[in-house]
Amino acid sequence: MDPEVVARLRRMARGRAAPEPPAATAAAAVEGARCDLCGGRMSEDHRHLLDVHERRILCACEPCVAMRSGEDHLRPTGTRVLLLEGFELGDELWAKFQIPIGLAFFLRNAGGVVALYPSPAGATECELYLDAWNELVAANPVLSDLEPDVEALIVNRLADPPAHAIVPIDRCYELVGMIKASWEGISGGDAVPTSVEAFFARLRDTRSAA
Questions:
Q1: Residue 92: what pLDDT?
Q2: pLDDT grade, residue 72 (50/70/90)?
Q3: Considering only CA atoms, which of 177, 176, 189, 162 is closest in space to residue 118?
Q4: pLDDT band at 24 (very low <50, low <70, confident <90, very high)
Q5: CA 118 to chain centre
Q6: Cα–Cα distance between 55 and 74 in angstroms, integer?
Q7: CA-CA distance, 140 to 76, in Å (whole number)?
Q8: What angle do CA 157, 162, 166 make, to 5 degrees?
Q9: Strand 103-109's sheet: what is its strand order?
Q10: Could you tell me which of 69, 90, 91, 67 has the C-alpha nearest to residue 78?
Q11: What is d(CA 14, CA 18) in angstroms, rounded to the nearest whole number?
């Protein structure tokens, strides 16, 4: 492997880990899903709320979603899945983001735009070059409608051709969790491309391409 690639991956492994949803415990799996807000039982196919202050995703039962999603710090995660055909992101523009792996998701928040990518530590945050983001939006106006905090653009340059989609933020952390659970060595082994391929296959099964 190219020494520069190895060096970048090692920096990635030491990167600043971003907040992410807590992993379910074995006991919780046996008991069934419980709401993170009230502790009540709920279906496995439940909804999520985003704690904007802590940037943490919470499992929520329907009553809590209805009663608490209007609070300042809690917001329902996004719902749309939009596969982006004809997305414009060439090698030169991608290089301006200086992300050390060909997979990342981008979300808007009060501070601007954040880019995160999978690593052995989970979702790792990196500094985003706003000029590059503005150039990306100019080339792809659909990004101007990206809902702050709860939706993200996923860029998958591990695929050939590259794939791009707008998805709810909890789906992004689902992908990060899949990769983290099976990561091997410095580069991740086969876990990264396999998990990403399976993730995008599910997206294609649930939504037609835009």
A1: 94
A2: confident
A3: 176
A4: very low
A5: 9
A6: 10
A7: 26
A8: 90
A9: 82-83, 163-168, 151-156, 103-109, 112-119, 122-126
A10: 69
A11: 12
